[in-house]
Amino acid sequence: MISSTDLPDTIPVFPLPGALLLPRARLPLHLFEPRYLAMLDDVLKTSSRLIGMVQPYDAPDSNGKLHTIGCAGKLTAFSETEDGRYMITLSGASRFRIVKEIEGFTPYRRCEVNWTGFERDLGAVEKDPGFDRPVFMKALGRFLKEQGLSTDWDSLGDAEDELLINSLSMLCPFEPEDKQALLEAHSLSTRRETLLTLIEFALRGGSGEEVMQ
């Protein structure tokens, strides 16, 4: 567990389009670029072992600009492959707001960040009292079928609200800007509503037509 006193003012950031990390969730990553291997080496020397996952803007003229809000994960597992690459796991700790990017000094990007406003990320597992699971699961089943994806329905059915909603938010093949909307959702209920909206939009083929029942 991480407390608010463990959160540093500056963290390394990993801009990766479409890669979403949420609090209390786990994200596996494959590191092989020299700059990120250097980042891993430096992170292992820190007490917090935090890496910030953040979405870069995907517009052609964005020039590497980052979204303001990201999520920091604690490095909780890593292993080296025979060719010198690393498989790591980040455990979501807390979202953050970028104050400014720190120029120079390292081959990877670092940012000064503010954790205010995301205190609930460090608290207990969230509940979603208004979650209509049968309706949600029906829409999800149709979405996964259309996407040609399979899943372990028994595990999904048994999963707690937060684990189910956050895991699907991270795994479903949405556009980076949609992933950002899921990240910025104020509560679990808001994230579930956003997720269902994205699923229904995909089922309509991106049109404004009603979903066929």
Automatic annotation (TrEMBL):
Gene3D superfamilies: LON domain-like. It comes from the Bacteria. Signal peptide: none annotated. This is LON peptidase substrate-binding domain-containing protein. Residues 11-203 form the Lon N-terminal domain. InterPro entries: Lon_prtase_N (IPR003111), Lon_prtase_N_sf (IPR046336), PUA-like_sf (IPR015947). PROSITE patterns: LON_N (PS51787).
